[in-house]
Amino acid sequence: MSQAKRIVLASRPVGEPKPSDFRAEEFPVPAPGPGQVLLRTIWLSLDPYMRGRMSDAASYAQPVPIGGVMEGGTVSEVIASNNPAFAKGDIVLSRAGWQTHALSDGKGLARIDPRIAPISTAVGVLGMPGMTAYTGLLDIGKPQPGETVVVAAASGAVGSAVGQIAKIKGARAIGIAGGKDKCDYVRREFGFDDCVDHRDPDLAVRLKDACPKGIDVYFENVGGEVFDAVFPLLNAFARVPVCGLIAHYNDTEAKPPKWAASLMRNILTKRLTFRGFIVSDFAARQADFLRDMSQWVREGKVKYREFVTEGLDSAPAAFVGLLKGANFGKQLVRVGPDRT
Ligand SMILES: NC(=O)c1ccc[n+]([C@@H]2O[C@H](COP(=O)([O-])OP(=O)(O)OC[C@H]3O[C@@H](n4cnc5c(N)ncnc54)[C@H](OP(=O)(O)O)[C@@H]3O)[C@@H](O)[C@H]2O)c1
Asked: Does the global pTM surpass 0.85?
């Protein structure tokens, strides 16, 4: 019987995850029972939320148990089926997690049409990160023509889509990214009006220069020092979709926020709108998202960049890298061959 592989959570990380927080295990490829399908993982999506699942701090989702398979979205192939809804050879979006093979009863699987776009986009620009950008920006940020939209992690899966959608809506898009190469790419390939390096010691000054009319929508992906630079530039009635705070995901010891009082005073005096959201809050917008985003991708109005590491064994290091900017684009792991 051939062997499968999975990566499980070995221990809850303190600070940045270490290789010893993960463990690779082999197991026999399982046989599907009645009503089940057997999946072979092609693409594993690595996403920042996984850091939250490694922790048992209270959150909107349950943590991965110690010894449990690391959670994750996958693009998988049905390689055996006892479920009439799926045939051998179907490509599906699944939550199979960090493993080469998985069983499913078919619930929650969505068939992917490889003729529409490369199947990897189902966990990228046409999947969860793209939908996060679309709903957070349009439903909370509501950019108007001529307004200034700022987003950090601008070369990444969510940020790159945020800026390009802002441009489609007639707004100015200003990115923030780590390093010259990423900033150049964000301007040149994603068509942002400008991009500022968050490692520049003069970040606050550079950002002010890039936003002469202030900031109307700040799509918050990061927190930390980036937020410190953005905050004084927010205009009256600015909207801040709070999507992620990646600068803090490895903070396992809470520090008292020095800026909380000033933040609250400004929310009041500038009549700011801050709204946190999880992409699943906007499930009802899925059809709108797929219609618009597929069209924009087809027309070349929204471009995307993927960053691929090879083999399931590469996932832990790639994930640690994602949390500190080693990825340059949507982080994917090629777990098995894509034959589409
Ligand atoms: N609310 C939701 O439902 C939802 C859904 C999806 C994603 N998110 C959030 O959206 C954000 C982006 O996710 P993604 O999947 O698109 O990841 P990504 O941008 O592809 O990758 C993460 C990027 O974060 C940046 N980063 C890390 N630490 C930073 C720091 N201290 N300061 C500034 N930038 C830092 C790095 O880019 P640089 O090299 O440019 O620094 C890194 O490449 C994350 O916060 C994630 O948690 C939220």
From this structure: yes
